[in-house]
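Researcher: Next entry in the queue.
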Amino acid sequence: MIILASKSQSRRAMLDAAGVAHDAIPAALDERAVERGLEGCVAAEVAEALAVAKAQAVAMEHPGRLVLGSDSLVVCEGQRFDKPANRAQAAEHLRFFSGKVMELHSAAALVRDDTCEWSQAALAQLHVRELSESFVEHYLDHEWPEVGHCVGVFRIEAMGVQLFERIEGDQFTVLGMPLLPVLGALRELGVLES
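Model: Structure for this entry, 194 residues:
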């Protein structure tokens, strides 16, 4: 049984649906501190490094266990976005995304003890439709505070699907983890039947 170094409900649901037995233990990690050491890196590299760091943080507390870390980040017109700090900032993010393409980088890493055994990042491009001010307020009335925990201010499995006119990339990447490559790596490591 692996450990998922996350409290994300969508990541847990993906593993459950795929039949991957796991314990969920969130990583105690200062993500901003990790990011400070990654200046100059492209978004995919940052997401992958954060996935590795989360897995390492949990692996240190659970010797011998295989730990899956994952991270997602959003870039829009060259600007990186983190989870919104409050509802007002969530509305600002949505106004910025309106009519633009949001790049969602989702990464995963498998770590045992102090060794990263596998990592990979994937990209989804989400084409945000033009959002009216009344829609932004209506959306946040229904989705806040849940989307406060989501980079990009959306849950694709909920009302967040209404933000987009087109999505390029697989659904798992959009949900926050490149699941198909994760499953392939788990097979290669002998965790899942091949």
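Model: Strands lie at 2-4, 22-24, 66-76, 79-81, 101-112, 115-128, 164-168.
Researcher: Noted, moving on.
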